[in-house]
Amino acid sequence: MKKYLISIITVLAVLAVTRGAFAQEKEPPGQKVLQQRENMRQRIQDMSPAEREKFRAEIDTRRKNFMNLSEEEKEKFRTEMQQRFGGRISLSREQQLKAISAIEKQVAKLKAAVLSIGDSDRGQFRDLSEEERTKLREKMAKAARERMTAIRAIEQQLAKLRGPGRPQQRPERLDRPQRQRPSRDTQSSAKRAPQFELNSFDGKTVSLSDYRGKIVVLEWFNMECPFSRYHYETKNTMAELANKYKSKNVVWFAVNSTNHTTPKANKTFTDKRKLPFPILDDRSGKVGRAYGAKTTPHVFVINPRGRIVYDGAIDDSPLGKKKEGVVNYVDNVLAELTTGKTVSISNTKPYGCTVKYANK
Fold this sequence. Notes:
This protein has 360 residues and is an alpha/beta fold. It contains 12 helices and 9 strands.
């Protein structure tokens, strides 16, 4: 039928309006369509103002004619276009516009969720009262849920627009050489830190997910162990490091997995030493076993992406056996992370007392 034999120019114009998805079988994804669109843009640029206006009027008329076709006629047209160009239009114009409208609404929700939590909220977390912290945690959790819901909804609508069989990656630009992606550093392939939620011995709740985007230090601790006591009594290693990096997006937690320890003993220890971080209650040993904590002290450093980038000893001087040239591994790791460098030493052998886990 002649009315279906629309010229290539008209086809491309309809494609520009409907943004139909055409899969390429024999050519690199999107290259044929991109070349056709480039030819169209060049042709329009070469027109005089009068010719351009006439062309737009003609395209508008043809587009209206297309919209006035019956569903059967539209389907025949789509089939013809698929045979001619090796692709398919999976959605009608109305369906695509509806999907785009849904995406716009979800983008607005996504933006609102991101803006609802500011850097100042995270930065002043430690300075808030427990009630204010609880409210902020709830606010952050709600924002995270809304953000993920919006992202999933956007992905669903994009999948509809993409159509069946269409590759997700963007086609290579014809006028720009493809850029090489940088190789992934060792930190991106590190083990993901197991999630947990523990109560501190002073009655607060700590959830690792609340500290996404921050550097988290987990130090396995036992006040009865001489190796731990050395860093709190003879030296003030842990508190000094926590204070040193407190303003550099670093949070520190001591974790006590000693099965027979008591809340009173831990709270007394915290108050007496005026520790700048809480001691978390893991008497069940669930979190310690998940991380593979072996000794006290045993330190794990988690980067802002939630990966364990250091696992090992606090330093290379158990009980101060080295008088000079002591290497504090954790200090070095934090210095590298807070200055954007790659962690140079990601694993050492932890020393100290064995963690006194409860019997399974």
